Every structure is written in C-alpha cells, then in structure tokens.
Amino acid sequence: MRSDFVQQGVKCNFADSIPWVILSPIEQSIKQKIESVGIPLKDWNIQINYGIKTGFNDAFIISTEKRDEILANCQTEDERQKTAELIRPILRGRDIKRYGYDWAGQWLIYIPWHFPYQFDESITGASEKAEKAFKEQYPAVYNHMLEYKEPLSKRNKAETGIRYEWYAMQRWGAKYWEDFSKPKIVWKIIGNQMAFAYDANNYVMNNACYIMTGDHLDYLLAVLNSQAITWYSYVTNMNKTGVGDVQVGGQNIATFPIPFYDANKIELIELAELANSIINKNINLPFIDSKIEGLVSMIYGFTSEETNFLHSFVSSLRKSI
Predict the structure, then answer these.
(1) Which of 19, 41, 135, 176 is 20 to 30 A away from residue 187, measured at CA?
(2) Domain extents for the chain?
(3) Residues 62 and 176 sit within 8 Å (Cβ to Cβ)
(4) Residue range 263-321, pLDDT digits in tens
C-alpha cells in the first residue's frame, strides 16, 4: 500500500517497508538520482569490520614512553624484536579527520585470545598453557600486564578467565585481524560529522572506529567524503545521539549508493587520482575538494541548482560544528 501527501510543494511518500522522510522537490530529485545511479556498498567487493575492544584500555593502550620502557626491559634482542611487533600504533575515533588523521602517539599491546597460541584451534577456553608460554616468551609485556591483573580479571565475568585469559583483549578481530595491516578506509562511529580517512600504515583501530578493506578504496574515499553522501546520510538512515552527533555504523554505510567504479570512465579515474593526491599529502585541499565535488555532481547527474543546494547544506553543517 502506498499513499502520497502533498502540502505546500513538499511531497511525502509513505510505504509499508521503507523509512520515510519529508523532502522538498529538489531533495526528492537529489535522492532519486543518488539511488538510481549508485550501487549500495553492500554489493561491492569490500569488507566492513569493527576496531578492537580491549575491555580495559589502561592496560593495553600505552604512550610512546611506556612502549620504550617495556622494550628496554626485554632481556634479549629476540624478545625485544618480538615485543616491538606486538606493540602497534593505534588510532582512536577522536584521531580521525576528513581524509586524514592525527596520531596521538598511542600504542596498542595487541594480545589476542590464547596468546601466543591464538591459532591453536585445540584451545577452546582460558589456557594455562598459553599463559605460561606468554610469561616465558614475552616477560617484559607479561610483567606490564600483571600490574593490571585485578581490573583485567574483573572485566566481563561471563568471558574473562572462561573464554579467554585475563591478559587478552576482549575482541581482537579473530576473523579479520589481517585487515588491520591492509590499506583501508577508517572512520569513527560517533561524531559531529562523517569523516573518512585512508590508512596504509598498519594502524590498529579501537572500537570507536570501523574499517573498510577491499577494491577501489581511493575512489570510494572521495565519494564518501563528498557533499552528496554527507547529505544523503542525514536524510536517510543515519542515527543521531541525544546531543545531535551522528552514528556512522557499518550497517548505515553499507546502504550508501555509490556509482560503481569503471576503469573506462575518465571521471572515475580522476576521482581516484584526486583522492590519492590528498592521501599522499600533495594537496591544496580546498582546490581538490572543489574538483571532487564537481566530478561527483557530474557522475550523479545533478543540476547546478542541486549542486548549489548540496553545497549550502554541507557548508552550513560544517560551520555549525
């Protein structure tokens, strides 16, 4: 069943299974063009996953000074090298900006369940064997974690010491841990606006972030940061917090209609190249932003009036932040 309601030039469409919003005629046109030209990201060759969850950040997320101290406490060069590989730079939601990020010098002690036997499928719960090996092979890290054993042991009582050891992270990306070492798009889940960045430097993200791996990430980065997708997110399925921040969940992103990448279309190649110029810091951001917006408008088929509408909407949004 479907009904249309028109009042003062505003058309409202109501359908049984489709979330409805009240849009002006120009907004109706923009939305229709985005959805007719784009393909939802869930149908692309990409993967979207959460960042990791420690359950007690004070133990796992450390400063550069603490990292240096732990490495200095290593007893052999072999232990020092293995420990250095275990401690990885981490980005938090607050570090991520539009097209980039400001690393705050924070490091994650990346300890999976059953470490260092995380790939031993015969281990199905908290393992004394794993803890013994951890203590023997990584004594400097083990001693650091030991300082926090009491609060670590008081984490999720249904899991800590049952499903995994007291010193392990709560969620370590068991099925996608390798994706943290791949080129990826990253974004924070909650913020005053959407902001997508690109990382090819092996950062790990905390659970205030999502990561996206897969094909054509440079092109996707440009379109996701565009005015069109920013506007679309606000008028469709983007959740809001009580203070007005947007919640950019993986399920939300998966519905965004993005024109599918075609290597034979010059404008799509140019979008990817422009995004790469930002990624590689060879930029005049306002100039490149303007070129990206022009290409995105052309790809979606917006009129000049629609492009100006989007520009006014997003400019007003960013000024209010």
Answers:
(1) 19
(2) 26-49+183-198+212-319, 54-153
(3) no
(4) 889 999 999 999 988 887 767 778 899 999 999 999 999 999 999 999 999 988 776 55
